[in-house]
Amino acid sequence: MYDNIIYDFDGTVADSYPYFTRALKLTLEHYGKEDTYESILANLKISVRHALRHYAFPDRAEAKKMMYDIYHRLALAEQGPVLGAAEALRYASQNGKKNFLYTHSDGFPRLLLEKWGLLDEFTFIIDSTFHFPAKPAPDALNYLCERFSLDRSRSLMVGDRDIDVLAGLNAGMHGCLFDDGHFYDSFDCEHTVRDMHELIGII
Question: What is the pLDDT of residue 73?
């Protein structure tokens, strides 16, 4: 059905949120703040920027650096891909489809993908070093379409947040929401999956 699949990274390909949540919880404790795991996760699912604002750190930049330093250590030691993501990526590659990655992160995802043996499954990766406007702006996806002559009608943007899907729609693509935690039950989406294995039946 689709020739080109563009993935978000954190929470879609990478099982990042348990580690982001632990990292932010430890950062909160460092500043003498407390919140439940579930509440921290819910704030992070909106965005990291939102979560850092929500907790009103006295020095937001310092808190962000501390959180990411902790996250990077945890991720390199323990984090793996989202269950089913590797299978979906390999299925696409083996069936002549192209996988792309579009993340707001820096180069860290490449380290994890290489560690997991998944880096070569991607035709191209767009990260923060490209300095495109953030999702849901379509600029990065428009760039992919132009650079690789992608047929937008046969391209699918896959992500775990509404802004991922909206970026795809704004670029004239189709969208698939991966929402295993039911964070976006009220979000109307063409495709919704609760398990990344289900993506194989869509692509």
Answer: 98
Edge to edge, the sheet with strand 174-178 lists 122-126, 98-102, 4-7, 155-159, 174-178, 191-193
Asked if residue 136 and residue 92 are part of one domain, the reply reads yes
Q: Which residues of the chain are modeled with pLDDT < 70? A: none
pLDDT given at position 177: 98
Range of the domain at 89: 4-15+81-202
Cβ neighbors of 116 (< 8 A, separation 6 or more) are: 80, 81, 86
The CATH number of whichever domain residue 59 belongs to comes to: 1.10.150
pTM above 0.90, yes or no: yes
Q: At what angle do helices 17-30 and 60-78 cross, to 10 degrees?
A: 140
Q: Are residues 73 and 102 in the same domain?
A: no
Looking at the fold, whether 87 and 26 belong to one and the same domain comes out as no
Give the model's pLDDT for residue 176.
98
